[in-house]
Amino acid sequence: MGDYYQSSGEFLFACPFCKHHKKKLSVNIEKNVWKCWVCDRSGKKTDYLIKRFGDAQDLKDWGIDKNLELEQINDLLYGVAKPTRRTEIKLPKDYEPLLVGPKTFLKKSAIKYLYKRGVTDKDMFRMKIGVCKKGEYGNRIIIPSFDKNGNVNYFVARSLDSGYLKYKNPKVSKSDVIFNELLLDFDKPVYIVEGIFDSIAVGKNSVPILGSTIKENSRLFQRIVENNTPVYVALDEDAEKKERRIINLFLSYGITVMKVDTSGYEDVAVMPKEEIASRIESAHYIDNSINMLYNII
Q1: How far apart are CA 220 and CA 222, in angstroms?
Q2: Alpha-helical runs (H) found in the chain
Q3: What residues contact 32, with CB distance under 8 A and at least 6 apart?
Q4: Does the pLDDT of residue 138 top 90, yes or no?
Q5: Is 89 exposed, middle or buried (0-12, 13-18, 19+ CB in 10 A)?
Q6: Fewer Cβ atoms within 10 A, N terminus or C terminus of the chain?
Q7: CA separation for the pair 208, 192 (Å, rounded)
Q8: Is the overall model pTM greater than 0.85, yes or no?
Q9: Whether the Cβ atoms of residue 64 and residue 76 lie closer than 8 Å to each other
């Protein structure tokens, strides 16, 4: 990161974000934090700076492989292993794919419902959407999720009737799940939405946070930061506080954030596809001056 000077246990560099001519980026290795006192960029992990701005020799000196995930980097830098929690998930034993096999009454009902939600045959095939006729998930649409190795890591079970529990999903920590990680390309912008039908409506490279927020220790956040992936945030209009927290978190790690206007609609899933494309095209960039307003409002 170039020349620096040391003051009271902190290292002062020229900021690679705002390019200010004075050394205003303060790095405290002991506390594992950094902040620029000009543009206000900041973060809680100094290894992010090393991985993003260090050259090959820096990475070698710090024992960092650019292909490693953040939790592995932490182990190398600080010698503290963060335990990973992986719960084995399997699709319900009565799961049947919609577009394979006989078209039963249940499958026809499910397809009709999905058409009303704007889901196409191509979507059903790509996402391997199915149904369960009986059992714990009987009379429900099953939308599976697969990790980067193609293993099931979650599924959404949506009821086809108006009975109790519209959604009945596996009991697994959502922080450990990237929904359909197998279909995501972190070298391209990722579109962050709330629910699975929002994700289907947006299309490729979108990921639902399944109603929860994004935390610093979540697998999704780690993958985005390790790849320096730009994000488009398109949460429902009534989720302003949640959206603000997510945007602030990404900005603190130097991630490029674009905010998609979702006003006027209950959620993204009910927007016409042409409207979604238009709003993504006109999404506005969130910089630190706007971020300061977010913190004040």
Answers
A1: 5
A2: 46-53, 56-61, 70-78, 105-116, 121-126, 196-202, 219-226, 240-252, 273-281, 288-296
A3: 44, 45, 46, 78
A4: yes
A5: middle
A6: C
A7: 6
A8: no
A9: yes
